[in-house]
Design a protein that fits this description.
465 residues; alpha/beta; DNAb Helicase, Chain A; Rossmann fold; 2 domains; nine-stranded mixed beta sheet; two-stranded antiparallel ribbon; 17 helices
Length: 465
């Protein structure tokens, strides 16, 4: 049976009507520029004409039959478009100008359909070639979908409207009517920064055994108890071990005792009593099957779609594999960091990525230079946070924000980069037997600050105009 050749989705008559309206009616281009670009047109000559119109618009020049004709003549593309007579013919039958936006939307939809047909055809061929990495092809198609579906998405406002909305939002923040961000549960950081922000990419880094995983899990637990949906991906620990660490922080008992079952009866009762908030939270623990980065990206999107997750923790960077051919380790890590930052913005979530620092026994205090060995990931990050336990290196006195302090076995948290908040340092009480971090000078977690006290997490509050 002979295969019937199908005609690609197109709307050539509407393309002519839209171009004709732009050449005749002042302001018509502004009505359709949100939906159209040269590639959205099916006919090549229409692509060239619209490209000439765009160039005039960018140069703030008038758009009409004469100026567009001259623009095409100067670029030596007038004859390719059928000459001046073809452009004049576009202006004869333009239909109703009131329908121009609907026509533009239809043209854009036809373009999206053509692109999906092309991409699925390429995916089909790629799947037949078993030398291609399966997850790479799936991830490539998934990225294509994200790009094409956001094709017509624009956030465009006049400066006056933007100022009004900014003032209204800032006043609400000033009056504590809405939370300033996603609270970490650590008073100094939350007051300094307003908490983590949706769209942010946060790096928590430290040498081995300096508490980076502990700090991340403690923040996740604090957020969970404030009804903020959280997902924790661990490539190092089992779900049982993650759960034990979260419960240990909640109950101020050793996670080792929970894992080994060596707690006493009183502690068992306390565990049952004190995990009510954690049990009722929207917290999801994931032990990924393999270290493929593309699979992680897809799964984060799934968790956001299914469970409205707002903060994702990933432990940790150096255990991920990108499987990109002919690329250095540093380049692969940098690419993964940039993709995670883009994903945080796309999904309007906060992504927290843990990373190891290169060792320096002579100068153990963390610096940004030691993070650069991880593919220059600080360029992608909005916040870079270092965990540092001086006692591990035999130091009992350290400078904290320029002041010499007796630190004992406590921790110094160094905010080495804050794209929107600046840099700082502060101390947290560290209890190694649990292990867990607490607000400094307390033996147990302080109550949450008033500005983030709320019965339910409202994600709209974390989405500034």
């Amino acid at each position: 049976m002979q295969e019937i050749s199908k005609i690609p989705p197109q709307a050539i008559d509407l393309e002519k009507m839209v171009l004709g309206a732009i050449l005749v009616e002042g302001g018509a281009y502004q009505k359709v520029s949100e939906y159209l670009s040269p590639e959205t047109f099916y006919k090549e000559q229409h692509q060239i004409i619209f490209n000439a119109i765009e160039k005039l618009a960018y140069s703030a020049k008038p758009i009409d039959l004469i100026t567009v004709t001259n623009q095409l003549r100067e670029s030596e593309k007038l004859e390719i478009c059928g000459g001046a007579s073809y452009l004049a013919g576009l202006t004869i039958s333009i239909g109703s100008a009131s329908h121009i936006e609907n026509h533009a939307k239809i043209i854009a939809e036809k373009y999206i359909r053509r692109e999906f047909i092309k991409s699925t055809w390429e995916l089909n061929n790629a799947m037949y070639d078993e030398q291609n990495e399966l997850l790479d092809e799936i991830n490539r198609f998934d990225n294509f979908k994200m790009d094409i579906l956001s094709f017509t998405a624009k956030d465009e406002k006049h400066i006056a409207q933007a100022i009004d909305e900014m003032q209204e939002y800032s006043i609400k923040l000033h009056n504590n009517e809405i939370p300033r961000g996603i609270p970490t549960g650590y008073k100094y950081y939350d007051e300094f920064s307003g908490g983590f922000q949706s769209g942010d990419f946060v790096i928590i880094a430290g040498e081995t055994s300096n508490g980076k995983t502990t700090l991340a899990l403690n923040i996740a637990k604090n957020m969970a108890e404030q009804n903020i949906p959280v997902a924790i991906y661990s490539y190092e620990m089992t779900i049982f071990q993650l759960t034990a660490r979260l419960v240990a922080h909640t109950n101020n008992i050793s996670s080792k005792d929970i894992i080994r079952g060596t707690f006493n009866e009183s502690q068992m009762i306390d565990i049952s009593r004190n995990v009510t908030k954690l049990r009722g939270s929207e917290t999801y623990l994931i032990k990924p099957n393999g270290t493929n980065f593309g699979r992680l990206i897809n799964d984060i999107s799934r968790m956001v779609k299914l469970y409205k997750v707002k903060v994702v923790f990933i432990d940790y960077l150096q255990l991920l594999s990108n499987n990109k051919k002919n690329a250095s380790q540093a380049d692969m890590i940098a690419e993964m960091a940039n993709r995670l930052k883009s994903l945080a913005v796309e999904l309007n979530i906060c992504i927290v990525l843990l990373s190891q620092l290169s060792r320096d026994r002579t100068r153990p205090r963390p610096t940004m230079a030691r993070l650069k060995g991880s593919g220059d990931i600080e360029n992608a990050a909005d916040v870079v946070m270092f965990t540092y336990l001086p006692y591990k290196y035999g130091f009992s006195v350290e400078d904290v924000n320029g002041e010499s302090k007796e630190v004992g076995e406590n921790a110094i948290i160094i905010i080495a980069k804050g794209r929107n908040i600046g840099t700082t340092e502060y101390m947290l009480t560290f209890r190694k037997e649990i292990p867990a971090f607490y607000n400094y000078h307390t033996e147990s977690q302080l109550p949450p600050m008033e500005f983030y006290e709320q019965s339910n997490f409202d994600e709209e509050h974390y989405r500034p105009f």
